[in-house]
Amino acid sequence: MALMIIAMLFVGVTMVASLHLRPLLIDLHRPLGIAILLLVVLRLYNRLRHRPPPLPADLPAWQVLAAKASHWMLYALMLAMPLIGWAMLSAGGYPIVLGGGLHLPPIVPHTPALYAALRNAHSLLAYVLFATVLMHVGAALFHLWVRRDGVFQAMARGKD
């Protein structure tokens, strides 16, 4: 799932920057966003049902707080990004077509001003998500190379 999200961020940047690749990337971006939304809902459900492994007992309190806050920030952003994207397209009057010709219904009314606001929010939150992912990777590498406390191994197995 992490690779999907990182790929999605790069697809989004390339989609905006390249007129030549834009149509192809839009056709990839929309269904991938919906797939991420569904996977995040499942992952969040699993996270709420099963506690994550405990953090090391000697971890400073500020790092425990940062770890918990960053996890919930990632979940919030992973939910918000596709929902805002869907709402943005709905407000712009653009269809969301998935494989097999399946059309998703609009979730907000067609409103140009709302489209503009949601487009700005989607772009801004993409930067916030990218920064949060980079901090998460940095923290993982800190646990691997500096603390050597097994947290990275748990994350790599998907048990964070």
Automatic annotation (TrEMBL):
Domain of life: Eukaryota
Membrane topology: Multi-pass membrane protein
Record GO cellular component, one term: plasma membrane
InterPro entries: Cyt_b561_bac/Ni-Hgenase, Cytochrome_b561_oxidase, Di-haem_cyt_TM
GO biological process: respiratory electron transport chain
GO MF entries: electron transfer activity; heme binding; metal ion binding
Pfam families, alphabetized: Ni_hydr_CYTB
Compartments where found: Cell membrane
Keywords: Cell membrane, Electron transport, Heme, Iron, Membrane, Metal-binding, Transmembrane, Transmembrane helix, Transport
Ranges of residues in domain Cytochrome b561 bacterial/Ni-hydrogenase: 1-158
Spans traversing the lipid bilayer: 28-45, 72-97, 124-146
The family this protein is said to belong to: Belongs to the cytochrome b561 family.
Record protein name field: Cytochrome b561 bacterial/Ni-hydrogenase domain-containing protein
Organism, scientific name: Knufia peltigerae
